[in-house]
Batch of 3 targets.
Target 1
Amino acid sequence: MRNTFKTVKKSKITANTIKKYLDFFEDSFLIESAQRYDIKGKAYIETPKKYYFSDLGLRNARINFRQFEQTHTMENVIYNELRRRGYSVDVGVVTIAEKINGKTVRKQVEVDFVCNLGSARYYIQSAYSIPGEEKLLQEIRPFRKIDDSFKKIIITKDIVPKHYDEHGILTLNIYDFLLDDASISG
């Protein structure tokens, strides 16, 4: 974030100052943070947190409705709904190894949400749209690398019936998710 201020705004703001502002915003309930969680290592990682607006209306009014990124907005709405339902929500990270030009390369892929409530855990991907096989493979890729039996879910704006695929991954529409508190648990 500091680099963005430095290059875009030509500001010399420090990382410490940015952290203080983010802490102030959290303390005033304008934003919430989600920690990054290494799913395979079962531990929190010290990489930067991910932030979500508590009230998208206030966010949009503050920036005078200039930026409307539907993918980010949908992810924020899902986060807020999961928190409203009582889940603790983290951002999942899965390290995978891939062969590229004969060399094994390790990289991290993200699971949008790791949700916990009591003994229940859900892995959720927010996918604004899944127009084809390539996008679907991108969304399920992290799920396929998780070796536990907790439910894996894709929430999309596409009008699709609630269904499970051959890997046991549930896909459902954002409206079905928002209108039914039991949509992911049932």
Note: The two ends are 39 Å apart (CA to CA).
Target 2
Amino acid sequence: MLRLFFYFKGKKMNIEKIRQLNDSFRKSFNSGRVVITPCVQSLTDDDRNELIKQVQEFDNFTEDNDPYGEHDFGAINFKNDTYFWKIDYYDTDYNYFSPAPSDPNVTNRVLTIMRGDEY
């Protein structure tokens, strides 16, 4: 099995663990926060729920949209618009970036869903 690692602020990160944590969070919205932008909020309830469902079910990861293999970003075409979702890693107080995104004990995830023109 190939294990991918990268270094973040001098610390070795396990890409497989980050990917697993990101996929779990995105699919369940447990153990983190979800933020939607005004354009997403302005959708009808049914459309917003469908967009959220598509974010949770997203699995179209390629080298182009996921070059580091973290599964932390995606683009969805929905109702003639492009929507992005992005996962960021924060410390346990949500004040700073996480010191170790592969460690759930020191990392809170935030998933933001936005229409493309809000990026």
Note: Helices lie at 15-28, 38-41, 45-57.
Target 3
Amino acid sequence: MDFEEKENMPQPQILSLDDDFSLIKSFIDGDESAFGELVKRHKEKVRNIIYLTLSNTNAIDDIAQEVFITVFKNLKSFRFESQFTTWLYRITINKCKDHLRKTKIRKIFLPLNDDEEYNVLSSINENTDIKQIVRNAIASLPDKLRIPIMLKDLEGFSYQEIADTMNCEIGTIKSRIFRGRETLKNILKPIEKELML
């Protein structure tokens, strides 16, 4: 692809918070197509959060649908006191937690034997992808540590955005991220050299 072709390619749309608010107001005024635009703008981010939280590709579409059904039912009561995305991601994480409670499963990538303690390194071999091992390690953390790390390190949320999304104090979020990272360091110590490559 040459320079001219790159210049002619459509540029990614920059999402504006004002645009979200405008769409919500249009929806409240009776324009249901505005809701479709909100879904288009945010569905991939919602799907990504679901995947990172559950590590279950089979559940992504169902839970994303549940998220947007909940948003549709409650959007007319949106107060415009916080970012739409904060509200949306909080609903997404709550739906993921509901799913986990209902199915009583842990968010892990590697299968567990009932009589075996979880070991994130249990399936390492010469062909194992290091990224997968790191994902396994993150998945092994408890919710209160895993979700803040996921939002901060994998999704790039600010501490304040995470605090708003999880309805916690910012100090609590910082503490949980610190503890989670320390736990991950201990879990991944056996492959420390490989991670430094």
Note: Residues 33-54 form the longest helix (22 residues).
